[in-house]
UniProtKB/TrEMBL annotation:
Transmembrane segments annotated in the record for this chain: 53-71, 78-99, 111-132
Top-level lineage group: Bacteria
Protein keywords: Membrane, Transmembrane, Transmembrane helix
Signal peptide: none
InterPro entries referenced in this protein's UniProt entry, alphabetically: Trp_biosyn_TM_oprn/chp
Basic and acidic residues compositional bias, start-end: 193-202
Pfam entry (one): Trp_oprn_chp
Protein name: Trp biosynthesis-associated membrane protein
Region of interest (Disordered), ranges: 146-202
Organism: Actinoplanes aureus
Length: 202
C-alpha cells in the first residue's frame, strides 16, 4: 500500500505541474484595438503574462516531486507541505487571474485555461497531502542500491594464488597454476629445468 500511495502522489504532482505549465502558456486574453485607416491591433496575453509567478510555482512543484524520490523521513514530509503550498498557490493564482482578466475576444479559452490551472494546482496539492501524511513510510529510491553490511557477508573472491617462484622450479616442485608466458626473470630457471630433463611448464 505504501508503494501505491507513493506512486499516486508522484503521478499527481507531475501531472498537475505539467498541466499548469501547459495551461499557463496558452492564450487567456485577446484584445483587438480598431484603428482608423490602419489594420486592427491584436494583443494576446498568456496566463504567464497575467500571473508570471504561476510558472515559478509549477517549476517548484516539479522540483519538489523529484526530491520526493531522493529523500526520506521528515524531509519528505516537509516536501509534502511545500507541495501543498505550491498547489494551493497555483489554484488561487489562477482564480485571481481569471477574475481580473479582460478576456476580450479569447472566447472559451479565457475560461478553459484558468480552470486547467486550478485543476493542476489541486492535483499538486493532493500529492503533497499524501507525501505529508505518509511520506515517512515510503521506501527511499537509494535503499535498494546500498551494500549489505551484515556480519558474515561473504567477502569478494581473491585474485587467485601467487605464481610459483623460480626457486620452486629448481627444486622440482610442481606448479599447479595454469601455464602462461614465461617472464624474463625466469629464463635461467627455465633453461636449467630443461637441462635436467624436467618440464618447466608443469
Amino acid at each position: 500500500m505504501t508503494r501505491r500511495g507513493q506512486l499516486v502522489a508522484i503521478v499527481a504532482c507531475l501531472a498537475g505541474a505539467a498541466l499548469t505549465l501547459y495551461a499557463v502558456t496558452r492564450t487567456w486574453s485577446v484584445r483587438v484595438e480598431q484603428r482608423t485607416g490602419l489594420s486592427d491591433l491584436r494583443t494576446e496575453q498568456t496566463g504567464a503574462d497575467v500571473q508570471p509567478w504561476l510558472v515559478g510555482l509549477a517549476v517548484v512543484a516539479l522540483a519538489g516531486t523529484g526530491a520526493l524520490l531522493a529523500t526520506r523521513g521528515a524531509v519528505r514530509r516537509a516536501l509534502g507541505v511545500l507541495l501543498i503550498m505550491a498547489g494551493a498557490g497555483i489554484a488561487v493564482g489562477a482564480v485571481l487571474a481569471r477574475a481580473a482578466l479582460d478576456a476580450g475576444e479569447a472566447g472559451a479559452a479565457a475560461a478553459i485555461w484558468p480552470v486547467a490551472c486550478v485543476l493542476g494546482g489541486a492535483a499538486v496539492a493532493v500529492g503533497g497531502v499524501l507525501a505529508a501524511r505518509h511520506g515517512h513510510l515510503w521506501p527511499a529510491m537509494s535503499s535498494r542500491y546500498e551494500r549489505s553490511t551484515v556480519p558474515g557477508h561473504p567477502a569478494p573472491a581473491s585474485a587467485g594464488p601467487e605464481p610459483q617462484s623460480a626457486a620452486g622450479l629448481e627444486h622440482g616442485e610442481t606448479n599447479t597454476d595454469p601455464p602462461g608466458p614465461v617472464k624474463p626473470t625466469d629464463n635461467r630457471a627455465f633453461w636449467d629445468a630443461l637441462d635436467r630433463g624436467e618440464d618447466p611448464t608443469r
